[in-house]
Amino acid sequence: MAISKIFIAGAGNIGASCAEVMARKQLGHAHLYDINEDFAAGQVMDINQASPSFGSDTLVHACASIDDLEGSDVVVVAAGVARHAGMSRLDLLQQNRKIVGGIGASIMSYCPHAKVLLITNPVDVLTWYLKDRWPSMNVFGLGCSLDALRFRFFIAEATGTSVNSVAGTVIGLHNNNMVPLVSYATAGGVSIRHMLTESEIEVVINKTKEAGTAIVSKLISRSGFYAASNTIAEIIESMVFNKRAVFPLSIYCNGEFGHHDICLALPAVVGDGGIHRIITYDLDREERRMLDVCADEMKRIIGSLRK
User: Fold this and answer.
1) Last residue of a domain, one of 108, 141, 174
2) Which of 8, 185, 284, 298 has its CA 20 to 30 A from that of 94?
3) Pairing label, strands 274-278, 29-33
4) CATH label of the domain that carries residue 269
5) Which of 175, 173, 195, 178 is nearest to 186 (CA)?
6) Catalytic sites, residue numbers
């Protein structure tokens, strides 16, 4: 299935940076929308005027209305309130649920068959919210894809190897209960358990879990966006070119690891149809326990939303 129109809702740091990376990689016709029409238009002008520097004739289009969703093949939802210093991602739930819900209603009106990649935090809860409200929506969240990128960076740093030689992923939830899969992490094809001590591995895990908060504590009034926007572009690229790359995306569970009717970040094969299948690993006892903790947390949050 050919993907031609990609709609990005939210022209803030993540949305605009994602559009820039997509133009640089020539991934298709990106359309950038923001509730502040002039702001989106300004971001698009800036991105397009940079195109000669990266030799791309793929331009980003500014959208004047949410109605421009019509005909979209992929929708990236990056609109919402960003985390500031001292805030958790869950603190954003009530405000961002309203924003995401409004965009969801527009998606179902103008492009109900589009593949929807949700970025807005708390991403796992809001992915569940959209899927629960509109069961037919083909929605999946960024999940732990950004965390997996950070996990690989910190492994490379600790082992003194190239990031290109590191494999590693993270599942569960995009919060401090995330589950970095140490049992499947390698550098140069060698398990990190043969290269690092247990205490060194613990440092890598803690750095991965605390990376987002550490960035926000330095930026104060906004959160990071470079790593996120590049991760999003990689996911889009896998859809556009049907690469079948694997990302730990937030998906609605239908029995994976024994869980139902909640959203967890699990390794997903991504191609032109969106998620083609979910990969289930043989987890060790501690990894399975930690994943169950994530599931219990999701159930508790869902329960509070249904009251």
Assistant:
1) 141
2) 8
3) unpaired
4) 3.90.110.10
5) 195
6) 174
